[in-house]
C4-type zinc ribbon domain-containing protein
Amino acid sequence: MAKKEVTVEQKLRALYDLQLIDSRVDEIRNVRGELPLEVEDLEDEVAGLNKRLEKLNNDLETIDENIKSKKNLIEEAKALIKKYGEQQKNVRNNREYNSLSKEVEFQELEIQLAEKHIKEHKAQIVQKNEIISQTKGKLGERNEHLSHKKGELDAILAETQKEEEALIAKSQDFQRDIEERLIGAYNRIRQNVKNGLAVVAIERGASGGSFFTIPPQVQMEIASRKKIITDEHSGRILVDQELAREEKEKMEALFAKL
């Protein structure tokens, strides 16, 4: 359905009202600041630390299994040494005796190697436990910090979320009453300026937030509200101070009801 015909003044008022609503949303989001990102980063860090702890504990289990395996190997080697020792008592010649002696020596070397590996594994356990202790300490600190930041964010959201949602709905309602061409221009200007102000009032002969003086003739044209005029320096849409004052009063009354 085509939008109803409206005057330039009505368009300027609608644009300024939209600016006031969107600026209010910007203020609410500025209050939250970097908190949502901080919470997200902390959650990622906590997840990373938990994953690290899980891996370290799995490593400990693997090392423990390796120690058990080496201990079993030692017991098997000792049993073989005993067996070969008994067999040596019943040998018929030196060749058999020497062959059994070599088997005993081999098993003794196996025991020495296994004991060396057990010692290394135990050193790894000490090292892993130190890392686990440090990681748990850091995890505790990060969890505490995360809980604090989440509390801050939840408190701000509890205060502002309902208002923000209502304002966004109002912004969408106001946009429906403004022609697409103007909405497109408004959004482009908002994206290109630091403070998101696409529509500003004249203050002391200059556009709001600017030091560039607007010629008196242009000021008169703006006050006549007969055409949409933009600031040649910033590209912002300009409205006169009286219109801005009237719309601010109207929108403040609206905000008070949200």
